[in-house]
Amino acid sequence: MKKTAFIICLALSFSACKKNEVNKPEQPPPASTQTHLKLPPGALKGNAVTKEIGIAGGSLQSSDGIISVSIPSGAVDQPVSFSIQQVENTLGSKGRSYRLRPEGVNFKKPVTITYAYGGLDFGLTDPKYLYLAFQDENGYFYSAKNTKCNKINHTLTVETTHFSDWTFYTMYEFEVNAAIVDGKVQLREDESVELVIKKLVTKPTNGPFDELLTPLYDPVTSATWDLIPKKGTLIINNVNGRATYRAPKVISSEQEVIVTAMLKDVVAKDNEGNPIRMMQLSQPIALKTGDYFTLSENGEEVYASDFGVDLIPGFSVDINAKFPTGANLSCHAWGDTPASYTYKNNMAPKTAMLELVTSDKESFIVFRPDNCDQPKDLFFSPGSFILTSVANSAGQYVEGNYTATLYHFDYCGKGNSKTISGKFRIKRKS
User: Fold this and answer.
1) Which of 22, 79, 178, 244 could form a disulfide bond with 104, CB atoms 3.0-4.6 angstroms apart?
2) What is the reported pTM?
């Protein structure tokens, strides 16, 4: 009866949104060669911070306090709605990426963008090697040649009349083939990661922005590598400027190691205009214990900070996971054997249910009404909850993975959905 009442309650009205029209700003020079770096725009992450700023000027800061915008008096001649929202960093650098809007304002004075790098972990990289960069609406990347670094305040600043997706990068850096969370590679027992040295070069222009070109891989044939502390193994291949790090087979507690590479005879300049002859690259690696539960959405993988499993022999497996973002995911599988469980709510064998509660207390579940106008039944998510191993006794592991589309509890009113996936390995305690 509760499910029937729930379906009826889902039929609510839809909302509409209105889009403001603004003038086009100064644009950077168009891409002139095929080597100009072009990538898809990053997916949105989190919620936008918005503020209306008028002729008197003002400032706006991202929700995490990392990037801020200062609008001087007289930069706009009427109130404008400004916003900052974090997006996926498709450039692959260690800085977070932010979308500044609106993109079409004709600023009468330059605005100042300030990036506070002090809260980010980018290893031992000297801040003088960092440059601010943006991606335009066509996907092309540009480097801000007038980036200013303040090592006392731990900030990078630039004056610009262009709003877009902003981040920072270094000329030489590691590219890795593993998940990175806040600058750190996440590895479990006996997992490995390949580190390849890449160089990001620019093509000079007459304006304040240089074209950022496609990366050069293996730009050095010799580097001095090191592992601090000596936990795990590092296999070096200096013929093509790369190395492979493998985590220990047993990780008793969470810890961190740093892979470094010292480059010599570097020909470049830092953001103060001084020549660089030697540069040290570093990549922090967080070593995680054998237990884990992950949640992936929009290409970002997050590890749960707290999770546990309850197993009732012959009946069910229940898992609850809490994440640093404040989200909570509950998984219920009816059965206790390795199998693929489809999403249903009738508690039949080999069926499962998922519910995600976000940090702002919004609830998402694996079903929605089949028709919002005249609901008659429930439509269940594609995908499955898969158990590959079930612990028969304490000390053994419950392992598996999942994929699902989750629908907002008020789906017919808001129309929101999320596509998620993840994997887990949890030791049974009792």
Assistant:
1) 22
2) 0.62
